[in-house]
Amino acid sequence: MSAADTAVTPNASLAEFDRTTSRWGQLTMGVALILSLAAPLYLVFFTDLGITAGMIWTAYLAVAAAFFVLWFVEPITYYPVLGPAAMYQAFMIGNIANKLLPSALVAQAAIGAKAGTKRGEFAALMAICGAAMVHVISMLLFVGILGTWLVSIIPTDIVDVARLYIFPAIIGAVLVQLVVTMKQPRVTVIAVVVAALVLFVLVPAVPALAKPATGVVVLITAVLAWFLRSRKTSATATTLVN
Amino acid sequence: METALTPEGLSTDILAIANMPVLWVLALGVFAAIIVQSLVYMKAARKAGPAADISEAELKTSFRAGAIAAIGPSLAVVLVSIALLTLFGTPAVLVRIGLVGSAATESASASLAAGTMGATLGGADYTQAVFVVAFMAMSMSGAGWMLATLILTPILRRGDTKLRRVNPALMAIVPAAALIGAFASLGIAELGKTPIHILSVIVSAVTMAVCIFLAGRTRATWLREWGLGISIIVGLFAAYLAHTSGMAPVA
């Protein structure tokens, strides 16, 4: 390859790489999106359970009220770290902060590539591919096959207890984990006080608010957290954001 | 509204519908999409490697390093997923907990959705119909993340300056408030249920606190990723002891 060639080709081949990854990234993510919605839709339409559209929309609104902020915030937050190609991987594979980002960092360190460079971007992309393969195989093998078999042999009384108390057993740990990793004591206090007031004072007084209660808590917490934020830290925030 | 449910809809045999073959096929389709994506990406990376100043050997090293680093976290997700199998069935757990979402967001969504049907996750009123509505709602919520990614990535890539110039204090506080607000609300709601629910929340929370403390004090950083799995098992064990020792209300 002549020197003149290498001056032009890198840009052309990087542009082709961007085109390929974004086209296939969008396509595969679109397919995953449709398939993941098709499963519950199949149950709604092809089982005779008497589920109405009203039930689904009511449930969806309650969930959306709690999470819609995060739908937008998470992609914006991770974009600078992941880059466009890996975005389509990350939001399909999940567990970004605790699995994909560490994998990417380890790979960059292994070949001495700096984040923010093309070398770094490629190393991260390959690392996420590696992480994806390990994850897909372990999920299919250990959950799909082994887990399904395990559940079939565990005594039903244990399964019943597990089913009944699994959610409280998850939520306690998740809450502690969130509070510790976020390091936002002020927001935490506001959230707990608002949640207690809404759930144990407001909802009993206004039963109509029972269904959207979590959404109400999220909204009030966000507004209060913003207006009651520490002005001192927000002044120095520019140096703390990263 | 709830009178629309048919007698079949009131059955509590969740796994009878949650493990239907069609759902397995759709779940495997999502896995296939991820595998195809990775293969296409790796081929593209190998082709453009020289232009990015990265050799084929380095690409391989990166792949292997990423794969090895993912083993621990993946197995931690496996443990949590198995615990959730009885609630959602294998196909839903594979797609929702294993891939797109996480144990935290998906079980939270399911709990919220069940609440709108007047039911508790896993309780005596957790019928097939409640499961299907919860599964639908969490899939729609998961679609929110994917749609946002599909819409925002091209925008961020074209000229991300405007979106990134959003007030940094706003980007630091509002997401944190939304997350902590949602989970604090769900956690405190559990405290309004039976004594065993309260016990499970507290035992699980304390176990997680111990895991995080030990991970910070010792070099056992693996406790960070295994913390959730361990807390769930310990929390469920406490619930089982309390349940069998007669603390449970007679159903």
From TrEMBL, chain A:
This is Uncharacterized protein. It comes from the Bacteria. The lineage of its organism: Bacteria, Bacillati, Actinomycetota, Actinomycetes, Micrococcales. Keywords: Membrane, Transmembrane, Transmembrane helix. It comes from Arthrobacter cheniae. The chain crosses the membrane at residues 24-46, 53-73, 85-111, 123-150, 162-180, 187-206, 212-228.
From TrEMBL, chain B:
It comes from the Bacteria. The chain crosses the membrane at residues 22-42, 63-88, 129-156, 168-189, 195-214, 226-243. The keyword Nucleotide-binding does not apply. It holds the Pfam family DUF5058. Keywords: Membrane, Transmembrane, Transmembrane helix. InterPro entries: DUF5058 (IPR032479). This is DUF5058 family protein.
